[in-house]
Amino acid sequence: MKYMHKVTVDELVANIHSRWLEQYPEDKPHIAQALEVLAPPTKDEIDRIIGNSSWTRLACEECERDVERLVYVGETITYEQSPVGLCADCLDAAVKLMVSE
Ligand SMILES: [Zn+2]
Q1: Distance (Å, rounded) from C-alpha 80 to C-alpha 101?
Q2: DSSP letter at 26?
Q3: CA 92–ligand 1 middle distance (angstroms)
Q4: Residues 69-96: pLDDT tens digits?
C-alpha cells in the first residue's frame, strides 16, 4: 500500500495551526497568531478567522457531498496529480462494484 489513509474534519480542526504554518510560514502572520491562541480550536472559529470554510471541509470527490471523514487513495506526485478522497458510501459502492458480476 503506497498511500491510502484516512482524514477527518476533527483532525483538520485540531491541526489547523500547524497546517496553516506549513502553507503560510511567513505570510499572513495575523491569521497564524489568531489560530494559535484557539484553545481548543473549533470549526466555526477557524472559518471566521480565515474567512471561509476551505480549511475545515472534506468533500468526497465521487459524490461531491461534504462529509466528516474521507479515505484518500493515490500518491501525491505533482499538484496536477493529487490523491483522491472518497467517503464511506462511495467506498462501499466501489466494493459492491468490485464483487458484482
Ligand atoms: Zn462519496
Answers
A1: 34
A2: S
A3: 9
A4: 999 998 766 666 678 999 999 999 999 9
How much distance in Å is there from the Cα of 4 to the middle of ligand 1?
16
C-alpha cell at 98: 468490485
Strand order in the sheet with 69-73: 5-8, 69-73, 84-86
Helix, strand or coil, per DSSP, at residue 87: coil
Q: Which three cell numbers stand for residue 48?
A: 471566521
Structural domain that includes position 10: 5-99
What CA–CA distance (Å, rounded) separates 69 from 60? 9
pTM for the predicted model, two decimal places: 0.85
pLDDT tens digits, one per residue of 47-64:
999 999 999 999 999 999
As given in the structure block, the three cell numbers for residue 65 are 457531498
Question: What is the distance in A from the centroid of ligand 1 to the CA of 76?
Answer: 20
The total of structural domains in the chain comes to 1
CA angle, residues 72, 75, 81, in degrees to nearest 5? 100
